Amino acid sequence: MRRRTGIVIGTCTALALVGTAGSVVSAGAGVRPSEVGLSAARPSPVGSTPAEVGRRAVPHVTPTTAASVTKPDILPSASSSAPARARGLESTTTRSAGRQRIGELLRVDRLLGNVGGPKRQEFAYPGASYVKVHFDRLTMLPGDYVTVSNPERTESYRYDESDPDGRWAMSITGDTAVVEVHREIDPLGLRDITGDLGIGIDQVARGDSRRAAARPGREESVCGTDTSSDAVCYESKDPVAYTKSKATARLLINGTELCTGWRVGAKNRMITNNHCLTTSGEAYDTEVWFNYQCAKCGGYDVFKPTKVWGDQVLATDKTYDYTLFTVAGFESIEKFGYLTLDTVRPRKGQELYVPQHPSGEPARISGSKGEAAGNCAVDNPDYTGYAAHSDVSYFCDTAGGSSGSPVISRATNRVVALHHFGGCPNSGVRGDLLAGRLRTYL
Fold first, then answer.
1. How, if at all, do strands 391-394 and 378-383 pair?
2. Do 315 and 373 sit in the same domain of this protein?
3. Could you tell me if 224 and 179 lie in one domain?
4. What's the domain range around 331?
5. Which of 285, 367, 385 lies closest to 325, judged by CA?
6. Residues of the chain scoring pLDDT < 50
7. What is the pTM of this model?
8. Whole-number pLDDT of residue 209
């Protein structure tokens, strides 16, 4: 059974933008921002609209007390196995790794809401960009529920007895998550005679305090000088590319790993790489962030993203490195539009642009309009990926976390490749091949 969550968004300081207004968190001088607030929950996101903005910054730090968490043990990454290729997958920080890593998994042991036990627990990690808790147990009486929120309660998600054990909660932006058990009135005293009640938390994912972009390996897929720009920089000079970029989403997988995905077709369909996720179980624990982009070209303010959960995997293939899946709460992300696969094989020299979330960054686009064709254009339309003739190669700037990005033709504004390999040239699986294989699903 699916977990039912709700979100409560408080009032924040207003910021006037062109046609938008929203909440902002202040960043320290000289600090390059990194994370933002949330605006949606599973299965039907409610609350803040995409017009709200936050600050891409290291959040306010709350000191950790000895009672906050046990001394953590760092868990191994849930990365997938490396491909049998010399070039690295774009989601990797090294050629032998799997998905791009952004944080740490910490082992904890907390039980809340049991007889005589605490009802509230704070998980504080100074400097963390987000905190995400994992429930190994959700045993409550009807009417009871648990919330996971930030200390100010401006971001809060609710879970009840219908939610399954062994699931992640939605991440909380900032360095502190507060888990609190709320109990229904119990006139019969059932809790006093029911000894197995309780909320168990066995893991916490803590996001990096610094941008993953600073990690070794990013440069291996930036071909020359990085000419990619914040997506919003294209709003006036290339409005079509800017509009198309809105269909692209940041994926946060298993709490600490990153890829990019995008809406393909008008139905509830998302696509990313097979090396990013392969099963419905993985999709179910994947956060899909839409509208995670800067509010101003080169600025630090970012739109508050609309977040939904991944849902069912419909099709996946390792050779062609794709996974097609659905999301819960689809109605909340329809407004961001969708992209279409090009059924025609691209030609050499055809100009391209790539909306993406490199290293988990707010949306960026490589391939400026009018840029020299050789920098972001089809280099070889008959390139070898996992199979002969499967890929298209290009020199568009990408980075770890860009796996699953759409490679879009400027001539048609259709997707000619599903990006998956870095290495200069970089490459993606041909869109015309994917269109044929996925036709029945789209």
1. antiparallel
2. yes
3. no
4. 214-438
5. 285
6. 1-86, 92-97, 210-220, 373
7. 0.74
8. 62
